[in-house]
UniProtKB/TrEMBL annotation, chains A, B:
Cited PROSITE patterns: IDH_IMDH
Record-stated family: Belongs to the isocitrate and isopropylmalate dehydrogenases family.
Organism: Coprinopsis cinerea (strain Okayama-7 / 130 / ATCC MYA-4618 / FGSC 9003) (Inky cap fungus)
Residue stretches making up the Isopropylmalate dehydrogenase-like domain: 12-351
Protein name: Homoisocitrate dehydrogenase
SMART domains: Iso_dh
Matching SUPFAM superfamilies: Isocitrate/Isopropylmalate dehydrogenase-like
Keyword Zinc: no
One GO cellular component, as annotated: mitochondrion
GO MF annotation list: homoisocitrate dehydrogenase activity; isocitrate dehydrogenase (NAD+) activity; magnesium ion binding; NAD binding
Keywords tagged on the record: Magnesium
């Protein structure tokens, strides 16, 4: 189904708002994409279901039909956010984790950049978290047994050479394209010498792969244990450029980095594989503000931009990013997470006016 | 071997400086303890080996003799910090992780408090991380196999009802004794529904245990996913009072909290079990400043205070804490991690002068 950027007549985009504020920010991203006009092939949107609400209605969190349509009919997708049940519910399992695996979207790419360091935001943050997206504890192999002293639960943490190598390649590729060309490998191999040892060694070996052919020779490499990475992110975030991490550490450090630039409501991501890309704001479903019309649409609009960039539509992506950056810098239309008073709609309108 | 505070004639303290700056800060803590004079039973110190250097010399990171002496002869201990090899080394395994398990020191208690919020340190942080110390991924059950696509490594994450219950009890006990009486349970049960589900449910059930008898009824409980806990720690640390977490999350959030109060060099901990307590600064071996004589001794002195408090020597503990707080507030003698110019020795002397 996938064609290349140049030959596409239309762009079929699956929209999966899912739960909570996902239903408020994904429509905003849609509107921003529409506003790009001829800079991208004519967008066609396909609405798709998934999430906790879908589960309570149908008993399935990720309908097969959603996966089928994404696979067979869509060029790309935008995912909103999912709510989780507050108690363990039999049969429910996170649809976003499942989608990442089903579509083999092995890289979760999360750029975190402070927009206005000149406005006193010290120090400037400009980094990308490259998070492995298919394994680690997210393989969800868990069992509970009864031992001598009560219940015992075990989960498997899986780290493979193959997944570590491809996420490593993605990270080196991104690092090599940036001015600082610096890569930090995040792990905890002082405790997990075999699993994180494999991750670390496989990533470090990427520059020596035959097909790489010296491409990454000018990328400098540093390592950082996950606990001290979080500490350093807070204390001297400027040391980081590209950070590559196994799944769970990547989840945590991207939230840490997000806290440095003012709001999770600003941070976009793409879930990228060799054949598909899905944009997704890093924030959650935010039940506390759901339905109030004040969710920050910027993370979703930026996720749309990242998605378009990944597909080769640089011009469209640049226009979205530029518009968003201007709105943030001007500071007139900001949602409450950025200490503003605007609604989702007002911020969207401000962005649309700049596009 | 253990006697109670009231009946002890002397206090036998095992000292395990281990590697790096551990060898500089543990002697400082020792000197501070000696300065307490009659506020505690006469201290007797027993020097013990462990660590990477011990391993390179003897082939064993945690000598049996060290464990035996701690078990049979000591009332308590102070541990410094360990260096890890920069590559996987067969036979080497972290001695601190092993010690926590060998002595069943199931709770790692890490208070993080800003000393001088009036001096512009906004917002004030005043929390305790209560970290489970014996299981989770730290059981170190790892294997590597060869699959279709190369190497595959698996680690087991173990969460038991028993360990979750006793760490939960410790956390409720600490929370109930604090003015705010607030407990946050950290987990990631939206992904790890069985292991973290067991942790969460077991901790939440502690107030209903028969022996608890209403003791914790006025403790309020909140839950927070580990990724958003790190985010919130940076954004609004004042919401947290006591945080209880499985081992790895506890490792990470205590570093995050430490970053908020200026330096890891300030953060103490105790590894506590039902029969033994071991103080340990939260910082690592800091190879970059090793041997320069500028390591911050405060985390170790505070760890000594925590250890003494745990044994029932409140007066001695208070004197150490008060002396340290005064030195930090005055700001005259501070090590470089706190943007000062003083040496370990100068800070220690300043503390000794206040005791
Ligand atoms: C909702 C949850 C399963 C998810 C994750 O842990 O991957 C989220 O935190 C994220 O970062 O996308
Ligand atoms: C040195 C390492 C094994 C240890 C841990 O992860 O527990 C350290 O980070 C700590 O926090 O005490």
């Amino acid at each position: 189904k996938l064609t290349t950027a140049a030959t596409r007549q239309s762009l079929k985009i699956g929209l999966i708002p899912a739960d909570g504020i996902g239903k408020e920010v994904i429509p905003a991203a849609r509107a921003a994409i529409v506003a790009l006009g001829n800079d991208i092939p004519k967008p066609e949107f396909i609405d798709l279901n998934a999430g906790w609400e879908t589960f309570t209605r149908t008993g399935v969190a990720l309908p097969e039909e959603t996966v089928r349509v994404l696979r067979e009919e869509c060029d790309c997708a935008l995912f909103g956010s999912v709510s989780s049940p507050s108690r363990k519910v039999t049969g429910y399992s996170s649809p976003i984790v499942a989608l990442r695996k089903e579509l083999d979207l092995y890289a979760n790419i999360r750029p975190v950049t402070s927009v206005a360091p000149e406005a006193g935001q010290q120090p400037a943050v400009d980094l990308i978290v490259v998070r492995e997206n298919t394994e680690c504890l997210y393989v969800k192999q868990e069992q509970q047994t009864i031992g001598e002293n009560g219940k015992e639960a075990r989960a498997t943490r899986l780290i493979t050479e193959r997944a570590s190598r491809r996420i490593g390649q993605m990270a080196f590729e991104l690092a090599a394209a940036r001015p600082r060309k610096h890569l930090t490998v995040i792990h905890k191999s002082n405790v997990l010498s075999i699993t994180d040892g494999l991750f670390r060694e496989t990533v470090r070996a990427v520059p020596r792969l035959p097909e790489v052919n010296g491409k990454y020779d000018d990328v400098t490499i540093m390592e950082q244990l996950v606990d001290s990475a979080v500490y350093r992110l807070f204390r001297e975030p400027e040391v980081f450029d590209v950070m590559v991490a196994p799944n769970l550490y990547g989840d945590i450090i991207s939230d840490a980095a997000a806290a440095l630039v003012g709001s999770l409501g600003l941070i976009p991501s793409v879930n990228a594989g060799d054949n598909f890309v899905m944009g997704e704001p890093v924030h959650g479903s935010a039940p506390d503000i759901e339905g109030k019309g004040i969710a920050n649409p910027i993370a979703s609009i930026r996720s749309a931009a990242l998605m378009l960039r990944h597909l080769g539509y640089t011009k469209g992506a640049d226009r979205l990013d530029l518009a968003v950056d201007q709105v943030i810098r001007e500071g007139k239309y900001l949602t409450p997470d950025l200490k503003g008073k605007s609604t989702t709609r007002e911020v969207l309108d401000a962005v649309l006016a700049k596009i």
